[in-house]
Specification:
The structure is a single chain. By secondary structure, the chain is of the alpha/beta class. It has two domains: about 5-75, Helix Hairpins (Orthogonal Bundle); about 80-155, Transcription elongation factor, GreA/GreB, C-terminal domain (Chitinase A, domain 3, Roll), CATH 3.10.50.30. The protein has helices spanning about 10-40, 45-70, 125-130, and strands at about 5, 75, 90-95, 100-110, 120, 140-145, 145-155. The strands form two sheets. Strands 5-4-3-7-6 form a five-stranded mixed β-sheet. A two-stranded parallel sheet has the order 1-2. A hairpin with a 5-residue loop joins strand 3 (about 90-95) and strand 4. The protein is elongated. The mean pLDDT is about 90.
């Protein structure tokens, strides 16, 4: 299925929590703001009312987007993915050949990508460059800033 969204179980739960928050907390906040703006009288030239209605539109669009993603989720822990190659869900330890610096990333779907958590999208330049490679290999990855050379030290998967 072309619309499949691959997520870890944790990523799936995070999206479910976001959806629940948007449907409850955010909807209530926006409804209150709309009510307060209406109480000010004429809504035809009421900036607070317009802003609240716009926020409502954005919130409903995000709800629809999350519902569509969650309807097409496949949890990657349940997939039959080779453990000796880098694919989505792999936790990869790399050594920068030029600086000897070591880093660890988890390859995830774009929905789960997070720089702060060292989760990179399989569609990012580094993610694409690592896919399908094995431990011990050295890869040259073209990024906007030039070429990165990495030695793949370890590949592991969540159990």
């Amino acid at each position: 299925m072309a619309n499949e969204v691959y997520l870890t179980r944790k990523g799936f739960q995070k999206l479910q929590q976001q959806l629940e928050s948007l449907k409850t907390t955010e909807r209530q906040k926006i409804a209150k703001a709309i009510g307060e703006a209406r109480a000010q009288g004429d809504i035809s030239e009421n900036a607070e009312y317009d802003a609240a209605k716009e926020a409502q539109g954005h919130n409903e669009a995000r709800i629809a987007e999350l519902e569509a993603k969650l309807a097409n989720v496949r949890i990657i822990e349940n997939e039959n993915i080779p453990a000796d190659k880098i694919f989505i869900g792999a936790i990869v330890t790399l050594e920068d050949v030029d600086s000897d610096e070591e880093m660890t990333y988890m390859l995830v779907s774009p929905e789960e990508a997070s720089y702060e958590e060292n989760k990179i999208s399989v569609f990012s330049p580094i993610g694409k460059g690592l896919l399908g490679h094995k431990e011990g290999e050295t890869v040259a990855i073209k990024v906007p800033a030039g070429i990165l050379n990495y030695k793949i030290k370890r590949i592991k998967r969540l159990s």
